[in-house]
Amino acid sequence: MQTEKYRLMARGRLAACRQTIEGFQTMAAKAPHWGASIPLQAECRAALETIEQLEQRLDRKLIVTIVGPTGSGKSTLLNALAGSDELSPTGIDRPTTRQIVVYCRQRADADELLGDVDPAQVAIRLHTQGSGLQHIVLVDSPDMDSTESEQYRPLLEKTIQLSDVLVCVLNGENPKRRDAISFLKPCVDRYPGSLLYVALNRCDRLPADELQQHILPDLQ
């Protein structure tokens, strides 16, 4: 019920945005000799297309993609988000160097990804008991510090383009490893959405003042 409530609220906001943009589009069309008329109409069309895409996304589950280096805690986060300690218990069924792993309740939930990504590069793990998977699809990516990371970068970039939420998991004890940051930056730059999160693992092993005064401001 809560999810449906938020979905209705989102549809209402999108409808309001659509109405406002269509108003600007009509106004620009009535002033063909105005210098800004043509570019404004083009911007309105692009904005309306974006709204249509967002409306379509409301009819499916959120795609949440998790990226990060080896040992950063991606499996632990996957389990927490899925609501199951058995989703990825000890690194079993983790992605290979050329595959992403999609965790979902039913195979149809992964159709959005399978439409634009080579099926041979996607492993589907069905998990009907995970309470968190009722509303989301979790995507686990290969470790970014793999020796073959460059070979699967195109696959990861395609996946990120389709994601609603991107979570970058880093080891709080060493969050600014040069290889991790250099790998993440192009992915983040290509991410089309605004729901981007950096999750710092092992924060309990750090002094609170160091975390608050140095590490977090620097990452932000």
Written account of the structure:
The protein has helices at residues 2-29, 37-57, 74-82, 111-114, 149-161, 178-190, 208-219, and strands at residues 62-67, 100-104, 122-126, 136-140, 165-171, 196-201. It is an alpha/beta fold and 220 residues long. A 6-stranded mixed β-sheet has the order 3-2-4-1-5-6, with helices on both faces. Strand 2 (100-104), helix 4 and strand 3 (122-126) form a beta-alpha-beta unit. Helix 1 runs antiparallel to helix 2 (37-57). The chain is globular and about 60 Å long. The relative contact order is 0.13.
Number of strands: 6
Radius of gyration: 20 Å
Number of helices: 7
Based on helices, strands and strand pairing, what is the structural class? alpha/beta
**Share of helical residues:** 40-55%
Shape: globular
Question: How is this structure best summarized?
Answer:
The chain is of the alpha/beta class. It contains 7 helices and 6 strands; from the N terminus they run ααβαβαββαβαβα.
Write the SSE topology.
Elements: H1 2-29, H2 37-57, E1 62-67, H3 74-82, E2 100-104, H4 111-114, E3 122-126, E4 136-140, H5 149-161, E5 165-171, H6 178-190, E6 196-201, H7 208-219
Looking at this protein, list some descriptive labels.
single chain, 220 residues, alpha/beta, six-stranded mixed beta sheet, 7 helices, 45% helix
